[in-house]
């Protein structure tokens, strides 16, 4: 590490140019190749996956994307069949059919051919569906006559459409329908959703970085030192963001993966760089030269950053054990972002430190250093008083913290995995209003019909499939059933089932389960007919079922990994067990917050997050991996200082008190930066990213302010010396590891452990720390004081 830091310092211009060139090169390549992200949750072998495959292979004309134009007349304004409304909407739909990019428009008022240049031939028609001709498709008009809809099919998939292309459609129908009193026109669908992404690009990231900058400036008082962690994180995360776009051409990458990677990368990247800058500033205040201070910061704190980053990456890559291509891409993308932020902290940051020189200290610190010479750190202030308070009342404070965590975790027991849709959007959006109008006019299940597709071989199978339509009409929970459509050359049939309940309702999921387990097996009996259930609800139910079935394995792998690392670091049975329990508590309580806001709807509309809905099925897996990685940083940082003091004094009360006093402010201040970055992503306008932002912000807040500074020290006071117990046979078997070599940190004593402690005038350092080199087994107290290997706690 010291050699790497020395090379980067002495060739800082080369290092800076290389990083900027890498960033520019990857960004240019990503811009040229474009993105290839996916939101396909299909899992091979499931019913919904088979439906999608059969539709694409045998009925390709029905597998494309389409949007829906919805219009509604208010009470007292007549119905949608009124001559004035029909004339206006027919003219509007004709104009839509004439627009470039529109393949067809199917409405309720009968066949009216498009007249523009895009309406000639077979690519620009406006007509009734189902061969009703001039009579129109009355099924597109609600029973009360106040709501109607038309289907717009674009030439390109929704993912390839431009927002301007779809906005022209929406503006056309609204303009044509303007002036009619009581007539409301909205548009729903994947294409229409593009028109609602109107916020400034990367606004949430900018706000998070700005808040982090304020915290850093308050901590350092130096503009140059404030900018270094931010610049390092932005270069690392920016390079990763562009690289993920390129990676999408080689493997399945979810469309939210780049934003998620940026969310995680900014949080840990600023923290990791802050960690090294803080250590560098400490070295400068103690009289070291710029080069010496930077080398020592990277040689000591840099090793800790590598350990922390590797832990987060391993936790993220733990998702690979699920063997789901959709999550594999998310895991690799997020791990790549963390890896590049670590690389930037170890190479780009030392070069920048050499570039700014003594300006890493603020003017007052430079004057003090010149007048008074090097200074030593002190540990005092609020955190010291808090540590003493926890020592005196561990039972009371531990009970309060445990009760708070338990209460916040209660909503987790009602967790409902499913998919959010446009019905969960903001009430001000056209897609949400279109969704609501369709639900009110045609029933809540209209927005999520189930698609039953049958694979047939012979007349008997076709007869059985035709009779299935009649059987389905008698099933509880079914609002309507289409006639069996035996298209596809006679070997494939399609039936559309509209449930009585909304796509996100548990009752709709129950209906899917009954169809698969009871109704369809009876229909298939005695024939070679095979019927599969697809559709929005069925697809996400399948995805959620696979995730839930594999979740215990995944959590077990991640927890076991964390326990092994802590066992090797602290050579104790109690520390890893407590850490595992604390991490599970943090995850459960943060899920409780997510469920309360997004599933129960507590404040979701107020925050602009739309109305209540289920939790995305992949959220638990991704959040568990991220939170276990981040929690490990705080755990090691706190307990490492306690472990050092325990080995020095063999007094558990003193060890816990000193450890908390010297790391409390560091942990809490570092957490403020992560909370600011994560919370800002609520403004992204993306419900999934907002879930991650709120969940991670809540988890970090609880981890830092409740678990690590209250519950963990309280439990350690209560357990006494049992915290550090390890069977002798296991002590002999475990390898001895050191994240920081002993020689590289020489010259800094035990008092150096608190980076940014109150007496330093420093702010926060990130959670990761190096692990102390263990002493020979069971030394005497005197030997412990005299021969303790100096802990590399940062």
UniProtKB/TrEMBL annotation:
Gene3D superfamilies: Multidrug efflux transporter AcrB transmembrane domain
Signal sequence segment: 1-29
Region (Disordered): 742-794
Domain SSD: 225-355
SUPFAM superfamilies: Multidrug efflux transporter AcrB transmembrane domain
Membrane topology label: Multi-pass membrane protein
Biased composition (Low complexity): 751-767
Pfam families for the chain: MMPL
Compartments, as annotated in UniProt: Cell membrane
Name of this protein: MMPL family transporter
Annotated PANTHER family: MEMBRANE PROTEIN MJ1562-RELATED (PTHR33406), MEMBRANE PROTEIN SCO6666-RELATED (PTHR33406:SF11)
TM region positions: 206-223, 230-250, 256-277, 304-326, 332-356, 396-417, 543-568, 580-602, 622-643, 664-682, 688-707
